Amino acid sequence: MGAQVARRGDLESPQARVSAPPTPPLILASVSPQRRAILEQLGLPFEVVAPNFEESGGDPVALAAGKARSVDGGGSPVLGVDTEVVVDGEALGKPAGPGEAEAMLELLSGRTHEVVSGLCLRTAAWEELHGETTLVTFRSLDARDLAHYVASGEWEGRAGAYAIQGLGASLVERIEGDYLNVVGLPAARLVKILSERFAGVYGFG
After folding, report:
1. Average pLDDT of every residue of the chain
2. E strands, the chain, where?
């Protein structure tokens, strides 16, 4: 009668299944909780390794590359990111205290500034370097607005003295570009690279 037709149970037996190789985790060369949260939001597997790199200011792309190059990926792609807030061509760092935080926020009040990130994704075979800029416009802030936000303490450890994903959203009138770039990682750029370099591996492309 010819070859016997395989039954449904035979096709779904463990011997018939072909398991896909595990997706290699991204190695995040950063201890930033915001960047971890963004990778989790994107559904990406990752491991955190603190970069062995001394930040000394300068170009965010160069700093992102320095972070990524300082970490051994062990066969997995390594991701380095650096983000800064720029107004009038000057980068605003992290305020040292409430007075400096208030001064930064007053400087940003009623104006548009840039959030500039550098991104480096690298393997043993290749390296991608990119910059990403998002424009953020603050509403005009009065003394009560400034005092309320500074009292929240959210400015601590934040470049530019605000966190858009928290109470800092109340300071913002509008943005142009990638919102997650302002949070701390240019997600749209990362997804584009992964879809091109690893089509289908991470669910993109």
Report:
1. 91
2. 26-28, 46-48, 78-87, 90-92, 112-122, 127-138, 172-176
| Candidates 10, 59, 82, 178; catalytic one | 82
Quick one: tokens of 113?
Answer: 């500034």
Q: What pLDDT is recorded for position 58?
A: 78
Higher pLDDT, 2 or 186: 186
pTM (2 d.p.): 0.87
- Reply yes or no on whether the pLDDT at 17 is more than 60: no
Q: Is residue 59 flagged as an active site residue?
A: no
User: Given CA atoms 31, 33, 38, 42 in this order, what sign does their dihedral have?
Assistant: positive
User: What Rg do the C-alpha atoms of the chain give, in angstroms?
Assistant: 22
Whichever domain contains 105, its CATH number is 3.90.950.10
Q: Is residue 11 part of a domain?
A: no
Distance CA 151, CA 145 (A): 10
Residues 6+ apart with CB under 8 A from 177: 132, 133, 134, 135
Is residue 155 pLDDT above 50, yes or no? yes
Range of the domain at 130: 23-197
**Tokens 């972070």 belong to which residue?**
67
